[in-house]
């Protein structure tokens, strides 16, 4: 059985890259719902429906474990999938998200106990980061900034342009205007590692900028060590298959921006 990695589009490839670096021996399937991206401004109901369909595809394709490598899906669909969908449909399979592992690492990083989250509108509106942080580190204050223009700019390969620079600076400045004590900013959208350097430059000097890839990969290594019933069911041939709900030629050309390798994707219909 395989490990499935899901995102609304290409962003999850930034997570997949780090997961495969940490755990190269396993077999993976990546699914991008490129035909329906972006999810960031969609309602709970729609994000849940889309995410559940994609998770179902991955589970039916032989995945034992699926990582929602998308903050928006983790924020809006993960809990319902874990509590209401899996137990009745795939009781032996597991679906994990990216928000909890990100929050777990914050306790040791922030000194000012003020953390900024840059993410899609959906993730910020869901309050998921604030809720998870309150459970683990009630002394940490979360300040959110919805950045609705960033995913479309990245998905369209327009992220290294003066237009993108304008929006990056606008969002970073607005975040620090809300709370000057922030010493750590989470890139709470799996697309944002592509604009890490621009965000780092726009933020005040010395601020920690957290990319989720290595955090999620470390957490998965730990999860598999604690769950031998899952890891022993996973096959180890080091293979990877890419699937997209859009036309595969577009995926193939854009995906190389996110992973420095040649990718050939297959088109699927959900
Ligand atoms: N990459 C997704 C995330 O981490 C969002 C992309 C989208 O809006 O679909 O939130």
What oligomeric arrangement do these chains adopt? Answer: single chain
Arithmetic mean of pLDDT:
96
Placed side by side, the strands forming the largest sheet appear as 4-3-1-2-9-10
Stretches where pLDDT falls below 50 for ≥5 residues?
A: none
Q: Let me know the number of strands.
A: 10
Biggest sheet character: 6 strands, parallel
Compute the CA-based radius of gyration. Answer: 18 Å
Structure overview:
This protein is 48% helix and 17% strand. The chain is built from 13 helices and ten strands. It has a six-stranded parallel β-sheet with strand order 4-3-1-2-9-10, with helices on both faces. Strands 6-5-7-8 form a four-stranded parallel β-sheet, sandwiched between helices. Helix 1 (12-22) packs across helix 11 (212-226) and helix 5 crosses helix 7. The protein is globular and about 45 Å long. The two termini are 21 Å apart. Bound molecules: D-glutamic acid (DGL). D-glutamic acid (DGL) binds at residues 7-9, 11, 37-40, 70-72, 120, 123, 151, 189-191. D-glutamic acid binds at residues 7-9, 11, 37-40, 70-72, 120, 123, 151, 189-191.
